[in-house]
TrEMBL record:
Keyword Glycoprotein: no
Membrane spanning residue stretches: none
EC category: ligase
Name of this chain's protein: RNA ligase 1
């Protein structure tokens, strides 16, 4: 199977974009919005977008699996951001020059501190040994998810470092139309990026679990294919998002043969998200978290609750509920 791209940086839009001075549909505090034009991005054309694999863009928080303390670990996304003073200077420059090109950062002084364990994302540029911010003034990066770190408690709920496994939602090996939630060895996920989705992530657009009994899982980027792919055409995509049940997704990410990733978000097309029931939440799912009774003895993660549901099938992902 094709090696899918790893989401280490912000993914560009498949269309060229324009900035409109009106309230963002995506961020309440943003007084402008980025919208797609009808012109294909030259980057997508160069990467042969017509031969790319179309996959569902998931609405959660980005994670990464790589080694830490001599074994594969789950890492949480943590972008290093500028201090308030530096950000004010950056925005003032952007406003007056209508561009961020030419702005000079003081890398050692302009950015907030990050934990010692922080690492920059792949392909972050460096200058004089220091990572350089992107055009948004951020330095993308990662921190390891320690099991006792309350800030990342929902990340911790889907990994068991003693069992060296993670709880992953993926297409079933028996039937790709059916999803499965499985305990997957972390070693099998090494160097992959994944999306953490669930009750306490990004407003829970998929309607999973409840406050009392939260449901979370990881989804490998690129693993949920668009089952009926369509041409990369502005008008056809607009119609698909609005009229097709399969179009009830946050967006599409195309994985090109050369490793290039491009996307389109519903907000790029002036469409709401979420907008009613989501396609993912309405797909059938089976739980396959098996093993010996004493494998998952950590009461702080979700392995035991999923283990109790092993073999159970649900007509909708949204129907997965744990026993109280």
């Amino acid at each position: 199977m094709r090696r899918l791209g790893s989401v280490q940086q912000k993914i560009p839009c498949v269309f060229l974009t324009d900035v409109k001075e009106e309230q963002s549909r995506k961020r309440d505090c943003q007084q402008f919005q980025v919208v797609a034009t009808e012109t294909l991005n030259p980057l997508a054309l160069e990467a042969d977008i017509d031969c790319a694999l179309a996959t569902e863009k998931l609405d959660g928080t980005c994670c990464y699996v790589t080694d830490y303390k001599g074994q594969p670990y789950l890492w949480a996304r943590l972008d290093r951001k500028p201090s308030k003073q530096a950000e004010k200077r950056f925005k003032k420059y952007q406003y007056s020059h209508k561009s961020c090109k030419g702005f000079t950062w003081n890398i050692e002084e302009d950015f907030k501190t990050v934990p010692e364990t922080w690492i920059p994302a792949h392909r972050v540029k460096h200058h004089n040994g220091h990572p350089v911010p992107d055009e948004h003034g951020h330095i993308p990066g990662w921190v390891p998810v320690e099991k006792d770190n309350k800030q990342y408690c929902w990340h911790s709920s889907v990994v068991d470092y003693e069992a060296r496994a993670a709880l992953v939602l993926r297409p079933s090996s028996d039937d790709e139309d059916v999803l499965e939630i499985a305990a997957v060895p972390l070693a099998d996920l090494r160097e992959q990026t994944l999306e953490l989705i669930g009750t306490n992530v990004n407003g829970n657009p998929y309607g999973l679990g409840s406050k009392k009994l939260p449901v979370h899982c990881l989804v490998s980027h690129g693993s949920i294919r668009i089952q009926s792919p369509l041409p990369v055409d502005f008008h056809q995509l607009c119609s698909w998002f609005q009229e097709s049940p399969e179009g009830q997704v946050e967006g599409i990410v195309w994985h090109c043969n050369d490793g290039t990733l491009v996307k389109v978000h519903r907000h790029h097309l002036g469409l709401r998200w979420p907008d009613g029931d989501t396609y993912l939440a309405n797909r059938p799912v089976v739980v396959r978290v098996d093993g010996a009774d004493d494998i998952y003895d950590n009461t702080k993660n979700l392995f035991k609750p999923y283990f109790a549901l092993n073999g159970h099938s649900f007509s909708r992902l949204q129907d997965v509920q744990f026993e109280s």
